[in-house]
Amino acid sequence: MRTGIFVGSFNPFTVGHDNIVTRALPLFDRLVIGVVGDQVHKPDMPSAEERMAAIRDLYRDEPRIEVKPYYGLAVDFARAENAHFIVKGVRSIKDFEYEREQADINRQLSGVETILLYSEPQFSSISSTMVRELQHFGVDVSPYLPHKTH
After folding, report:
1. 3-class secondary structure for 61-82?
2. 132 C-beta neighbours (distance < 10 Å), count
3. pTM for the whole structure
4. Interatomic CA distance for residues 8 and 146, integer angstroms
5. Which band of pLDDT confidence, cut at 50, 70 and 90, is reported for residue 88?
6. How far apart are CA 9 and CA 108, in angstroms?
7. 3-state secondary structure the chain
């Protein structure tokens, strides 16, 4: 069984994340969305359970997708899930440089390969940080959040 993981804090899970999941799914028999459970760097973040519940609801009709919490290194989560691939979305050259370095280290540590999917242009400026900032100022962020269409 070909398994991939897609990991992040997903605070919140955006239309850009959904697009990466939709495009990555045909590559795998099973795609595990790993939601960061550690809240050390972001103490005001909703609980992992809250974030996972929203993502599970979005993909409730897709049996190939599982949503689980993870703690620590993505490669350790990949090993625990018997995944040989980490899926990452890339929006910019800045993202690319960061993800390339992470991919090199992850491969050295574990042999796990990273698959980079480039953002579609309409999603390239959407980030969870941007959505949270707009929310803070009372802007309707519903266009940036995925709705059940799967």
Report:
1. CCCCEEEEEECCCHHHHHHHCC
2. 15
3. 0.93
4. 16
5. very high
6. 24
7. CCEEEEEECCCCCCHHHHHHHHHHHHHCCEEEEEEECCCCCCCCCCCHHHHHHHHHHHCCCCCCEEEEEECCCHHHHHHHCCCCEEEEEECCHHHHHHHHHHHHHHHHHHCCEEEEEECCHHHCCCCHHHHHHHHHCCCCCHHHCCCCCC
